[in-house]
Amino acid sequence: MSLTALRDALPAYAADQQVNIDVLSAETLLTEQQKWGCFLACAYATGVAQVIKAIEADATSRLSADARVAAKSAATVMAMNTVYYRAINLLNNHDYRAAPAHLSMLALSQAGVDKIDFELWALAVSAVHGCGSCLNAHESDLHKRGVSLERVQAALRIASTISAVSATVLIEAAAA
């Protein structure tokens, strides 16, 4: 199943997501690698098998093997980081914020793809997981590297759409 087939299988109440998939698939603010890496990393972040398989089917022809592995890496390292940093920032005791995390995060510096691409994917996964601390850290890094607000927003639109499509798939599975 491809992303187009997944889009076509969405119920009428998810018509907005059908439109968003079309618009985002044709997105030109991001490079093809940035765009499809965002799609793939966000699909992995949702953990919804049907969405992952559909996006993998399209991403395989658009991303190198290294980029596909980097998308998985972005999803997994951010799954860890978003839990840790979201928790640290929710705690009333701010002393934890100054303490080192003592978590391995080599993926952030050894991704096998362009740093901007990986940062966009990490930002998008941070949005899927709702971690403000991680969002701000990755947005700041992207800003320092000259990435425009519009490109950051494009990655966030992909994250929000893949999250909504995943929710739709889960709703339909639960209702079946």
Write out the CATH superfamily name.
AhpD-like
Count of all domains: 1
Please identify, by name, the CATH architecture.
Up-down Bundle
Helical content, roughly?
over 70%
Q: How many E strands?
A: 0
CATH class: Mainly Alpha
Shape: globular
Strand content bin: under 5%
Tally of DSSP helical segments: 9
The low-pLDDT segments are: none
* CATH third-tier fold name: AhpD-like
Helices and strands in order, then pairings?
Elements: H1 3-9, H2 15-25, H3 32-46, H4 49-59, H5 65-90, H6 95-98, H7 115-129, H8 132-144, H9 149-175
Helix pairs in contact: 1-2, 1-4, 2-9, 3-4, 3-5, 3-7, 3-9, 5-7, 7-8, 7-9
Overall description:
- The protein is an all-alpha fold and 176 residues long.
- It contains 9 helices and no strands.
- It has helices at residues 3-9, 15-25, 32-46, 49-59, 65-90, 95-98, 115-129, 132-144, 149-175.
- The protein has one domain (3-175): AhpD-like (Up-down Bundle).
